[in-house]
Amino acid sequence: MGFSNSQIHNDALPNVEDVELLSISKQYLKIIVLNKVVMCLAFVSVLVLGKFFVTKAGFQEGFWYIFSIVVGFCLLNFGLAILAFKKRKYAIREHDVIYAKGLLINSITTVPISRIQHIEESRSWLSRQFNLATLNLYTAGESGSDLSIKGLPYQEAKQINDYISSRINGNG
User: Fold this and answer.
1) Buried residues in 61-86 as b, exposed as e (16+ CB within 10 A)
2) Which pTM value belongs to this model?
3) pLDDT (0 to 100) of residue 70
């Protein structure tokens, strides 16, 4: 038995771009929007409270500039979050799970099902209100989840969880 390590040419490799990625639930956009609104309201509230309680002349004179910057930041953050939402997609294939995300920096994560040791389905209070779930996939040697797919419809997340669990337990 001789050792073999033949080169694989690029044209023989499967193309990840050929995979039809599915969008996450549009309901998850509501959660993102709610989180952004709460964050911006907190920033603006602190700033407005500062207007009444901070007596330094420099702050009072520059309040409207600071306020404009904070509102501009919030609007930019809100817009980028909506655009980035459209890039969140996933696919479950026979041998792996693919998750794509990112607006400015696109990333595609592929986790082979054979490497998954544990899968976890979680639902926050807000996710339960929108009937959504998050799937966390764990592989060997990492302290946190290797892949987290947020914003899946609950029933779909449950089906994926059952499918992957049966595959990693040797039943699929």
Assistant:
1) eeeeeebeeeeeebeeebeeeeeebe
2) 0.82
3) 93
